[in-house]
Amino acid sequence: MSKETTDKTYMGRALELAQRAQAEGEVPIGALVVLGDQVIGEGWNRPIGAHDPTAHAEIQAMRAAATQVANYRLTGATLYVTLEPCDMCVGAMFHARIARTVYGAKDPKKLVLKTQVKIEGGVMAEECGAILSRFFAERR
Fold first, then answer.
1. Who contacts 65 (Cβ-Cβ below 8 Å, separation ≥6)?
2. Which of 49, 55, 60, 68 has the most CB atoms less than 10 A away?
3. Which of 33, 34, 64 is nearest to 46 (CA)?
4. 24 given a catalytic annotation
């Protein structure tokens, strides 16, 4: 099977998961994680039903995949999602070591979201940095 055919097959499954989200009254987004040629995790949007702002389809799929392989690192995996991932989900993909992400629709609101939260840093920076430095020093 060609890469394009494989991508369309897995995106088709992501669309089925998006329909499940819609049936539950959620924004219809679906996602799945594939390692090799095996689906190891699936998810659909659940922030409303789960009362969890992090319950995006991608996060749900990565959680299921990590449980399946008993490792938070999903090295070499591909994530398929019906909507362009938000910054939170991209960050999670980075930490999970997702190798490739394939998405369907572009998110027109993606840039707007960055202006809605005021982020301030530097409060007790020394103390916060020190605890992390000690932790990693002990691990080495």
1. 33, 35, 40, 41, 74, 77
2. 60
3. 64
4. no
Task: Say which residues have a Cβ less than 8 Å from residue 50's Cβ, sequence separation at least 6.
Answer: none
Can you tell me the distance from the alpha carbon of 124 to that of 122, in angstroms, rounded to the nearest whole number?
6
Instruction: Say which residue the tokens 């993909």 belong to.
Output: 93
Task: Return all residues near 47 (Cβ < 8 A) that are at least 6 apart.
Answer: 26, 53, 54, 55, 56
Phi, psi of 4 (to 5 degrees): -65, -45
pLDDT of residue 117: 63
Structure tokens, 85: 């991932």
- Distance of alpha carbon 58 from alpha carbon 135, whole angstroms: 30
pLDDT digits (tens, 9 = 90+) for 36-82: 999 999 999 999 999 999 999 999 999 999 999 999 999 999 999 99
**pLDDT at residue 24 greater than cutoff 80:** yes
